[in-house]
Specification:
Layout lengths: L1 H24 L5 E6 L8 H16 L3 E4 L5 H13 L2 E7 L3 H8 L7 E5 L8 E6 L2 H14 L4 E6 L5 H13 L4 E6 L6 H12 L5 E5 L4 H10 L3 E6 L10 E7 L1 H13 L6 E5 L6 E3 L8 H17 L5
Parallel strand pairs: 1-2, 1-3, 3-4, 4-5, 5-11, 6-7, 6-8, 8-9, 9-10
Antiparallel strand pairs: 10-12
Helix pairs in contact: 2-9, 5-6, 5-10, 7-8
Length: 317
């Protein structure tokens, strides 16, 4: 009987230690909310956010509430109120427009932290994540200038002032000033029809490479370029598998890793308010796989340029 009681006492002690360990090890993260202005099915921006949220769910064993096509302050507030009721204390707004929405309602939710992307608004419980895309565009431009045979390269951007598009232009020109660049802008992230019409126009310019820098239209452009034996650059996610013979690389913002990193910082009480910058670092923002048609010599030259930048911080030789 004494032996039984001793074993029971030991088991109870172990249970209490394990239970206490679980309590003391639990961080600040409860549940996560994700608001998107578009859809999780766009293969780039929205899908990357959704996969990142799923990684957080898996790693922290929590719930994730996702709401798509959110476009007004009223919708945002309704969703945030519902998320609050369901124990969410970290809300991602996947786009720059959520900055102004969060700025209007964050004071009513002091126990929630709001994260959005590519804006300058912040508060004690608002964080803006900036992707510095210039360098990833620059090195894609360096590669393109070394691969082109016609010296005619097309860019189809969502907007003219995208940093990655500016970087791409400079990367091409710094590598070979003789290359002509043809820029067309859709003025929308998702308008596939207009993007395809612009691509048709670019065919008359004898392009042999196209960089479609837009969330909702880059995949259709890549597939259309493949039909015309034109090389392409993937956007946001790794897109070599979309068209292995024609995608020569991708400009990647690894949203899955970034989302998990932000959630981990919040869980540990280390996520600051203000603006956080993610730059080209070969971890979160980087060039993707080289296409099979890119020669080993060109791969080595571009890799050497990237390594010089990572060591020196300078894009120029």
């Amino acid at each position: 009987m004494k032996k039984y009681l001793l074993l029971l006492g030991l088991a109870s002690t172990v249970f209490l230690l394990v239970s206490c360990g679980q309590v003391f090890n639990k961080g600040q993260l409860n549940n996560v909310g994700l608001l998107l202005d578009g859809t999780i099915h766009d293969e780039t921006w929205g899908k990357g956010a959704y996969l990142g949220a799923l990684e957080i769910k898996e790693e922290h064993n929590i719930s994730v509430l996702t709401r798509e096509n959110v476009s007004t302050i009223r919708e945002t507030e309704e969703h945030v109120k519902d998320m609050k009721r369901q124990g969410v204390n970290l809300v991602f707004g996947h786009g720059s427009e959520f900055g102004k929405y969060f700025d209007q309602l964050n004071e009513a939710y002091p126990d929630m932290h709001f994260v959005y992307f590519n804006g300058n608004t912040f508060d004690q419980n608002i964080t803006s994540i900036h992707f510095d895309g210039y360098e990833m565009g620059y090195f894609a431009g360096v590669l393109s200038a070394k691969v082109t045979q016609t010296n005619e390269i097309g860019i189809i951007s969502a907007f003219e002032n995208q940093p990655e598009v500016q970087g791409f232009f400079e990367g091409v020109k710094d590598t070979d000033p003789r290359v002509n660049l043809h820029l067309r802008s859709v003025f929308d992230w998702y308008d596939q029809q207009r993007a395809l019409l612009l691509f048709k126009d670019l065919l008359a310019d004898n392009i042999d490479i196209v960089y479609p820098a837009g969330d909702g239209f880059n995949i259709p452009i890549i597939l259309e370029a493949e039909k015309h034996d034109i090389y392409s650059i993937g956007y946001v996610s790794e897109q070599n598998e979309v068209a292995p013979e024609s995608v020569i690389t991708s400009t990647i913002q690894d949203l899955e890793k970034i989302y998990v990193n932000i959630a981990n910082q919040f869980d540990q009480g280390e996520l600051p308010s203000g603006v956080i910058h993610y730059g080209f670092d070969n971890e979160y923002i980087y060039l993707g796989e080289y296409g099979d048609t890119v020669s080993d010599e060109v791969k080595e030259e571009v890799d050497a340029a990237i390594n010089r930048y990572l060591e020196s911080g300078s894009l120029k030789n």
